[in-house]
What we know:
This protein is of the alpha+beta class. 26% of the residues lie in helices and 26% in strands. The chain is built from 21 helices and 41 strands. Strand 3 (47-57) and strand 4 (65-70) form a beta hairpin. The radius of gyration is 46 Å and the shape is elongated. It starts with a strand and ends with a strand. The relative contact order is 0.06.
Amino acid sequence: MLLSLNWLKDFVDIPRSLKPEELGLLLTKHTVEIDSVVSQADKYANIVIGKILEINKHPNADRLQLAKVDIGRAKLEIVCGAPNIKVGQLVPVALVGATLPNGVTVEEAEVRGVKSQGMMCAAAELGLGDDHSGILILGKTPSISPLSGGQPAKVGQKFSQYLGAADVIFEVDNKSITHRPDLWSHQGLAREIAVFLQAKYKEYKPDKKILDKVEGKIKLDIKVEDFTLCPRYLAVALSSIKIEPSPKWLADRLLAVGLRPISNIVDITNYVMYELGQPLHAFDQSLVDKIIVRRAKKGEVMETLDGIERKLEENMLVIADSHQPIAIAGVMGGAKSEINDNTTAIIFESANFNFVSIRKTAQKLGLRTESSMRFEKALDPNLCETAIIRAVELVKKLCPRAKITSSLVDLKKFKLNQEPINFSLAWLNARIGGSVSSQQVKEILVNLGFKVEERANNFKVVAPTWRATRDITIAEDIVEEIARFYGYDKIEPVMPKIEIKRQLASEEYLPERKIKNILALGAGLTEVYNYSFVSEEQINKLGLDIKLALKLANPLAAQQTRLRQNLLINLLENIKTNQAREEIIKIFEVGSIFSASPGDINKDASAKEKLPYQEKHLAIAIAGASDQPVGGGADVFSQVKGVVEYLFNSLDLAVNFSPVQVEPSWAAPGIYARIEAAGKTIGWIAKMDKKITASLGVKKETAMAEISLRELITILLNQPPPKYQELPKFPCVIRDLAFVLNEKILYNDIREEIINFNPLIRTVELFDVYQGAKLGLGKKNLAFRLTYQAERTLTAAEVDKLQQGLIAKLEKKFGAKFRDF
């Protein structure tokens, strides 16, 4: 958006000593970002008025012409491709070295073998509109153009002088005012300038009495069908209008902000929009029988002022007469009701439209206008009345014979949120980080238009209507208002106090890290991380209860709709993904499992906050090429069992594996056991059933173990600290025993019988298991290492005698055969 310094001075007393660049800096510091500050004279430097003397065909191009142009002090040869130039016309000429407002620098160039000594300019190239179809024609000698406010053009005259350009233009970054509908006008920005300059603010106050003198009997027929999309609609009719160029002062203002003057009535609507921020529209009264504010109908088409036919959608808001749409509400008027040279009676429209509706309509039509950009910000409905009175004032000024021929129609249904906002001075200063006085707070807010009540440094503030649409709603919004006028540069930058303390590790963190290190560094396993999501198909294939698997309300993928009940599904998927590249896969994971079982609900939570059961588990998986010995010389089940034993031994914990009566359907028959420690069952170990793994795409023999990490860590933390134990004074005796027995007899039963046979047997260690053809079908060999210890030196005869008794007992109880080969 462009701002005129001369225009701003209508509303605020800006000291002459304040340079425009300094004002631009102050605006940036307090209110909006100013991208540039440019003098109009500099904007049109090296651009003069020239007269076309001759037009000849270009010798080497059919579509180009060669014009001889008189600029007073010289006659220039200029190559031009515009079709609208004629001999005798006065045109703006950019000399070599000139930089146009659109950023183009003019250089002497050779076009198809002919030198061009300058450039005749289109309106768009001069920042005077969007038209770039032809050269901007200023007229014939002597020229009188709307651009100059009726002043004649002269050959050789500086273009800035012709325009009467004696202004300074501020370019505002629109992004910095996107949340401030009140700043899309000179009046709104002047209010802000008055506050930070502590200067006198001259607010425009409409004289409503001007509408009382109605000199006609026209009754406007207006209907608003949807007050949600149009909370307020005002209209008034005027006659005895004469369409002519605007006076110089008005043309100068529009040129300063980048608008090309068109005619007095159209220029008034643009003038009021840039002055007060409220878009207006003028209809030719003779072309409008009634006005209906409604949604577009299916299939409706309307030609807009730019000459383009636009297809309307049903939810777009339009202004229509009894036959068809005559304007797209808040965006652009229609060609069939536009002001023309023969217009003698008009209807002024001043309305407030729903900002969301206008934004969507402009986007869908690809038609973003100065009007729509303002409506998109949620304008104050009260501004409608002010703007239409101002427009009538200007019509009376420009067309003294104009008459108001209808009463003002005002249809409205709106309510602004102007609830009081309460805060204390201490609260405000704590958030600003400064020391603002109570008097400063009141002065800033009152000057910005707020209503302020203060008692004992406690404030009650009501936002003005132009800030109450969406901008000022909470106390923190007031903090911003005070801070930017108090001055961000006055707020001393202070680094926040941060005490660096050593992070306290949770009770479970260190044991968990220790367990991971044992498995990764000692056992040589690879840690994996998986999402907690699984598919219903995977759950069903494993034979798990789908009712206990929590269903996700918003799953990441269609095939991952449930939370996992255990870790084995994800580990099987890992094996499936990597089995083609690895002969042996050894992995583990620490992750959470979830259950919807009522018995697992968090009992500590309140009735409203009860959550499904969640617990961290540790899972170990090893997969090999077949059921033959792999890696360390054992099958996959034995390897997993060995890893579990290694983990517990490293943690100085005893582990036991116990059979169960009922095995899960996914486990290989007879190869499933509970993992026990400290008298508790804390997990399971199993070899996976081949049919189940095959259905999941796993081709390798797989064994797995899963342990409750919470239970394991609890046992670990409750373990008594190690005590010093003296080395035995007397030597121990170590003997090995090997037995062949039925494969169904459990290791734990044998071990328990051995350890309880005699107090002198201190330790029992199973060091070998063997099954093979030499032993016979259904047999296995278990080899134990026994340690005998006493408070004296044992003799070989004593130990031999104990060994013989032990062998006899095992043979009798288990049918075990002592193996001596």
